[in-house]
Amino acid sequence: MTFEIFLQQLANGISVGSLYALIAIGYTMVYGILRLINFAHGDIFMMAAYFMIFSMVNFSLPWYVSTVIVIAATILLGVVIEKVAYKPLRDASRMSIMISAIGVSFLLQNLATYLFTGVPKGFPDIPFLTKAISFGNVSLSMVTVVTPIITIILLFVVLFITNKTKIGMAMRAVSKDFETAKLMGININNVISSTFVIGSGLAAIGAILWGSKYAAVMPVMGVMPGLKCFIAAVLGGIGNTTGAVIGGFILGMAEIMLVSFIPPLTGYRDAIAFVILIIVLLIKPTGLLGEKVTDKV
Amino acid sequence: MITNKKNTLFRKLNILTVIIAIILLYLIDSDIVGNQYIKRILNLCAIYTIVSVSMNLVNGFTGLFSLGQAGFMAIGAYTVAIFTVPVELRESIFYVVPQNPVLSQIQIPFFPALLIGGLLAALVAILIGMPVLRLKSDYLAIATLGFSEIIRIIFTNIKTITNGALGINRIPAIPSLELDNFNISFGPMWSIFGIAALSVLLISLLVNSSYGRAFKAIREDDIAAQAMGISPFKHKVMSFAIGAFFAGIGGGLLASLLGTVDPKQFYFTMTYNFLLIIVLGGMGSISGTVIASFIVTAGLELLRFFDEPLTLFGVNIPIFRAGLRMVIYSILLMVLVLFFRNGLLGQKELSWNAIIGWFKNKMPSHKKSEGGAL
Amino acid sequence: MGILKLSGITMKFGGVVAVNNLNIDVEKGNIEALIGPNGAGKTTAFNTITGVYTPTEGSVYFNDEEITGIAPDKITKKGIARTFQNIRLFKNLSVLDNILIANHLHIKSNFLSSTLRMPWSRAEEKYMKKKSEMLLEKLGLLSINNEKAHSLPYGEQRKLEIARALATDAKLLLLDEPAAGMNPNETEKLAEFIRTIRDEFNLTILMIEHHMDLVMEISEKIYVLDFGHLIAEGTAEQVKNDPKVIEAYLGVEEDA
Q1: C84 occurs within a structural domain
Q2: Which of C118, C148, C168 is the last residue of a domain?
Q3: Is B294 inside any structural domain?
Q4: Where are chain A's structural domains?
Q5: Which of B11, B364, B46 is nearest to B190 (CA)?
Q6: C103 contacts B224? CB cut-off 8 A
Q7: Rg of chain A over CA atoms, in angstroms?
Q8: How far apart are CA A132 and CA A141, in angstroms?
Q9: Does any domain span residue C34?
């Protein structure tokens, strides 16, 4: 392997990793607040990609207008899902609410298959993102370079919101102790909605970047990234935003490195995440940046 | 006195039900009633019953949120596929990458292969369960889902054993059991229904044993269960492995029924079918699961017309096209979880007492005649 | 040496020292009590005995055998059973099932013979049922053995939880606030109940309790914890007049 190819793969790994990071933030925030694995998160991401096709292809809107619309529509979708499928089950068992999340995920996939067929659809070209740029002998597409930058910026935005704003403080309070926060007069439903707003918004941005990178959209595209990003969140320490981003980066790098250094194992690319999950859970179940929680007896 | 009389009556009713079931089975198996299509659906229902009841053992009775059924089924299915296909056909099936030279010489009869498949699934479950079952329920869901996917990914990649993405076809059908002296033959349907009945019986016996009570204790409160001297870990692994065993058996039967296996069949969304079934039947109800298995499996097959274009009075109704069935299916799952969380039976079991009580409630005016007739 | 001995038990959570160098020696056949203001570390001490927590320092001995850091289920098998501060019954199961579950730890049949209803497993199951019914009868709970645990009135639930602990054939019973939420009349009955089971089942009882009347009435020995430290121990009389105890309790009374 030449040094150029190595650099190329490194950039690729960082970019895939930062896409994972964007989706992982949504998982980690929802889990932090509701203690729920939002199985539908990956499918919200998938729907966002279809929204983009709609907006740019069917309505011929320019990419920057479409981006705004897609983010808004995805946020709406996320919040509606929370209100319809999760809120009524607030007092139900953990298993019920998880089954509901699986139901939403399954419904979105089937709905997408029904509406758009299972055949992959081309993602509209955003010239600014798809154009190639070269650094010496290394040629990269713009989206590969831009993705990590956007991810880092968004991470700081999210950190600012959670640490410096009033709603962020409420979020932290709720994730520390749901019941007490409720008793203290925090409007739980607002907090939960805000979490879904942030998570879905980031998923939408992730979908646009993903579509520009891989150029194809299909109903099951959210499944694997969804599972992997939850694992990234666990790896980073569930509930911890920075941890989710670090976890995403590690996972992306691990995958790309496996594919480029041990080509015979390429077929096992999707298995790495789960192997990492088991290792983390065995060695440090709280993840890299997670806090230890002891069960009260 | 009255309860005694009632009990004898119920026993008679039970025997009657079994006899009716056997007669029906005979009529359908020997093609006197129904057709191949109905036979196939019923066989599928019976197989889904095995897998769903085993999933309910883990999820409904032990309270573990496991989503690994598809993976364990794959193990059972592939074991049957790899070992029952006649040796002379192997070369033409593994035409891209030849089968491992040792494996390609081994052929095992169906029933031992089925049992091995179940045992292998249980073994894998124990290996997976050791690290994973220490986790809290929600991590367990992801981890089991992940493992089910890893099993599928491995099967796609070990081409010399599984033929990779091409899958294995020409799997022989379940052999008929011949009784030469009496000139009677029991077709595959007998085996499938027999194994299904046996599986359901064994799991209900287990659930109602001391071990079953320990499982339920862990479901109710694992800290209290542990304080009562029950090792949650040991019992969780036990329940998980037994569940995997039956899923493996179900997978093996499925492989033989369909005659072909490939990794795509065992995509993890397959597990969602069983999830729907146990939610519909009632988490923690075996009879509910059996009923729901038949409703859901048959329903899914019969509702295929939703996927066909529909023309009413010369007008094409546009909503009827490929995929509608699955949309309806997933909406059904949502509606169940949101509005009918207990499913058909909750944690109760179906009994003659319950059925009669139900009828009495529905038809108060017939109370007397009903009582007299029974 | 008594039946239960805690030697230099310290339990830290991060920087917080919940229990500090605790030494306790519970005499066989006694009813003893662990008291102290809220947050004094009483339940934490229980949790180190029952194996829920492994103490940061120190050792726990039961019948002269070290049991420090052993898993809770193994400790129960050795003969220590407990109840919980906030009742933890198997709510959706019947009273009888709750008791039967507590018999499972001694089971000889494996899951296969149990499932296949082998003759020896049937006999064992029958024995367990008989034993459980006898226990329920002794405690006056047999008439409600088919009720679901969650449908019982509060007092009965407390009683059932004690019965369940007894069903494990424990020699040492740890009761975590058995009288919580009871009125004086019920508390009085409970005192009687605790004494009866001690005598009838040859038990040693260590309890955490806030109802001072109850504690003073039935305990042969009392340990007073404050901020994780053992500040006093002795008979009811000795403890009652200990200036340190008075101070600790007065401080709390002001808060309350």
Answers
A1: no
A2: C168
A3: no
A4: 22-220, 222-291
A5: B46
A6: no
A7: 19
A8: 4
A9: yes
The domain total for chain B is 1
In which element (H, E) is residue C62 found? strand C57-62
**pTM of the predicted model, to two decimals?**
0.90
Q: Which of C76, C91, C117 is facing B227, going by the closest CB pair?
A: C76
- B324 to chain A nearest CA, in Å? 6
Closest CA to B100 of B163, B165, B9, B37: B163
Please give the angle made by the CA atoms of A237, A210 and A234, to the nearest 5 degrees.
10
**Could A102 and B272 be called an inter-chain contact, meaning their C-beta atoms sit closer than 8 Å?**
yes
CATH number at residue C208: 3.40.50.300
**Distance (Å, whole) CA A216 – CA B24:** 51
- A95 interfaces chain C, CB cutoff of 8 Å: no
Task: Give chain C positions within 8 Å (CB) of A294.
Answer: 13
How many residues can be counted in chain A? 297
Give chain A positions within 8 Å (CB) of B338: 85, 88-89, 100
For residue B41, the enclosing domain spans: 10-267
Range of the domain at C61: 1-79+172-256
Asked if residue B298 belongs to a domain, the reply is no
Per-residue pLDDT of chain A (297 residues; tens, 9 = 90+): 678 888 888 888 999 999 999 999 999 999 988 888 899 999 999 999 999 999 999 899 999 999 999 999 999 999 999 999 999 998 888 888 888 999 999 999 999 999 988 899 999 988 888 888 887 777 888 888 899 999 999 999 999 999 999 999 999 888 888 888 888 888 889 999 999 999 999 999 999 999 999 888 999 899 889 989 999 999 998 888 999 999 999 999 999 989 888 888 888 888 898 888 888 877 887 888 877 655 555
Q: Would the ipTM clear 0.85, i.e. be above it?
A: yes
**Is A226 in contact with A220 (CB distance < 8 Å)?**
no
Residue B55: exposed, middle, or buried by beta-carbon count in 10 A (0-12, 13-18, 19+)?
A: buried
Residue C48 forms contact with A (CB below 8 Å): no
* Number of Cβ pairs < 8 A linking chain A and chain C: 5
Q: Cβ contact (<8 Å) for B210 and C107?
A: yes
| B216 and C CB contact within 8 Å | yes
CA neighbours closer than 13 Å in the CB half-sphere of residue B251: 39
Longest pairwise C-alpha distance within chain C: 64
Q: Collect all residues of chain A within an 8 Å Cβ-Cβ radius of residue C43.
A: 297
**Are the C-beta atoms of B133 and B140 separated by less than 8 Å?**
yes
B342 lies within 8 A of chain C by CB: no
Q: How far apart are CA B248 and CA B68, in angstroms?
A: 11
| Beta bridge partners of residue C11, listed in sequence order | C19
Residues of chain C positioned with their CB less than 8 A from the CB of B230: 73, 101, 104-105
Tell me: do C188 and C66 sit in the same domain: yes
Give me the residue from C13, C43, C84 closest to A294, CB to CB.
C13
Does one domain contain both C5 and C41? Answer: yes
> Does C17 lie at the interface with A, CB-CB under 8 angstroms?
no
What does B234-277 look like in DSSP terms, one character per residue? HHHHHHHHHHHHHHHHHHHHHHHHHS-B-GGGG-THHHHHHHHH
The region, left, alpha or beta by phi > 0 then psi within -120 to 50, assigned to residue C5 is beta
Q: Which amino acid is at C40?
A: A
Residue C36 placed within a domain: yes
Asked whether the beta carbons of A158 and A142 are under 8 A apart, the reply is: no
Whether residue C84 and residue A294 make contact (CB cut-off 8 A), yes or no, is no
Number of domains in chain C: 2
Beta strands in C63-209 (DSSP E): 65-66, 80-82, 172-176, 204-208
User: Which residue among C108, C137, C168 closes a domain?
Assistant: C168
The minimum CA-CA distance between B41 and chain C, rounded to whole Å, is 30
The answer to whether A288 and A243 are in contact (CB under 8 A) is yes
Helix (H) or strand (E) holding C147: none
CATH code (residue B119)? 1.10.3470
Among chain B residues, the shortest Cα distance to C90 is held by: B220
